Amino acid sequence: MQSLLGQFYSRIRGSQEDIASEGLVYILQRSKSARLALNRIIKSDCGLEFGNLSFKSQNIGDQLERPDISGIDADGNEVLIMEAKFWAALTDNQPIEYLRRLKPNAVLVFICPTLRVRPVFDEIIRRIKLTDRYFTPNLSIHSIPVEENKHLIIKTWDEILGTIKIHLEQDNEKVLISDIDQIIGLCNAIDTKSFLPIQSDDLSPKYARRISSYYDLLDKVVDELRKREFVDLSGLKATPQRYGYTRYLKVEKYGVALNFNMEFWAEIADTPFWLSIKEIVTPSKWKISAELRRESKTIASVHGFTLHETINRDLYFALFPLLDKTEDVVINDLTDNIILLLTNLQRQMNPK
User: Fold this and answer.
1) Distance, CA of 278 to CA of 292 (rounded, Å)
2) pLDDT tens digits along 94-130
3) In the chain, where are the structural domains located?
4) End-to-end CA distance of the chain
5) What's the fold here for domain 203-349?
């Protein structure tokens, strides 16, 4: 739906997440039916039932984490944290410090645009796995139970705001219905309009240098693969693409494309580096067989790789670079992961 706030969202200075989350806090503070609606969402997804919570925004923690919305119970315990996300990446504190901050029997909720739910969920799973926590995510509802009956769930803005609006309509809270329509209109505008307003910092040379360094990093990974005598580059050229840059490689009977892909980075997962694998039919024709498709999905599942299937049914493995490491460490780690992926795939496709 459209709203006055949504119509002029591109002229809003500052954080759009802050405006949406502050608006949601405003609604929750003033309406018991809105709080009841939110409690029902929580109970439906993770079984926890809260009483009449109070809400505050930007409640700074010991590690300087600053969740957008905190829900406080009658005993003063923070039992609910809600984090508003549109197109920004997760911060260093998310979700680990937020989960540590919560006491048992509590919930962490990320609220995202529809297109961001799966990438955010996958990135959260990846980060939690790095802590060696044991958990079994519920993929159907994007929910993760963590130790001490803590839960992490991801909901869309439409799911949260739409459910609250229904309860406001049932209780005939006309003023707040108008208010929540404004927030819904803002979120819809941000969710559906592809152009993100240019901020002064966006034009900083540091971003150009960063993107250029990603191209160089891709070339250096290819050089490392060649140095280890794992790939064949004969007859293949680096190719610029609309959304990035591709290096083509041959590994025995497989054609491999190592990609810097900004489209996937924006919409699929929080990394610009992607790998696709096909079988070489002729020098100019590479394809994905049913067996290769099946084994690729198996390897992604077993070894924890994020795998994206495009509308054309091409498969791409996400490659996540190490953070806060020197270039040589990042290059070697990416190279190791590519070799691990391809070696396991060859083993699966050609069992002895």
Assistant:
1) 8
2) 999 999 999 899 999 999 888 788 888 989 998 988 8
3) 4-192, 203-349
4) 59
5) Yope Regulator; Chain: A, (3.30.1460)
